[in-house]
Amino acid sequence: MEYEIVKFSIDDYDSMIKVWELAGLPSKPLGRDSRDSISTQMDNDPGMFRCCMMDGQMVGVVIGSTDGRRGYINRLAVVPKHRNKGIAKALLDSIEEYLDSLGLGIITVLIEDESEGSMKLFKARGYHFHEDIHYLSKRESPDV
Ligand SMILES: CC(C)(COP(=O)(O)OP(=O)(O)OC[C@H]1O[C@@H](n2cnc3c(N)ncnc32)[C@H](O)[C@@H]1OP(=O)(O)O)[C@@H](O)C(=O)NCCC(=O)NCCS
């Protein structure tokens, strides 16, 4: 079945949430994944939002971001029904090309321990695993 990687807009917000739910990917719907927050992020840079469409349905998603120093890959997910068809790789090709075009020279991703599949995926794409780096965060609330 044919699929295509395209940019998406705030009109597709519910579809994006559905993909994450079907994929079992945790998100922050009251925080940085809320409709208002995503809308603001899209206003800042609409190029960061890429999805995979198949037969008029969203089946995969990825969000890029940057803090001005590094590029980041966020919330990569593909619905279980359409895994192992190269969709995650196609989404990463698309967002990496965009992040590379910004000239930052570095793309990073945070992966939770249990996500063995995504560890393999990113390592196979040349991402280096830093055993010596620990992720710390300071939050206004657990929802952000
Ligand atoms: C990880 C995920 C995005 C992969 O999506 P996908 O479309 O099935 O992946 P692709 O078909 O593009 O790529 C598969 C490649 O990734 C690796 N891979 C993906 N899932 C894997 C798994 N469960 N176990 C082992 N390797 C896996 C393989 O190396 C494979 O490479 P190959 O084609 O050379 O065999 C998908 O399983 C998913 O949505 N998981 C839940 C959410 C998640 O963990 N997201 C990542 C957050 S960083």
Question: What would the CATH topology be?
Answer: Aminopeptidase
Number of strands: 5
Q: Label the structural class.
A: alpha+beta
Distance between the termini: 37 Å
Task: Write up what this structure looks like.
With 144 residues, the protein is an alpha+beta fold. The chain has a single domain, classed as Aminopeptidase. 31% of the residues lie in helices and 22% in strands. The protein contains four helices and five strands. It has helices at 13-23, 35-44, 87-101, 116-124; strands spanning 4-7, 49-54, 57-66, 71-78, 107-109. Strands 1-2-3-4-5 form a five-stranded mixed sheet. β4 (71-78), α3 (87-101) and β5 form a beta-alpha-beta unit. The longest helix is centred in the middle third of the chain and has 15 residues, at 87-101. 21% of the residues are buried. Coenzyme A binds at residues 23-25, 76-78, 83-89, 109, 111, 115-118, 120-121, 124.
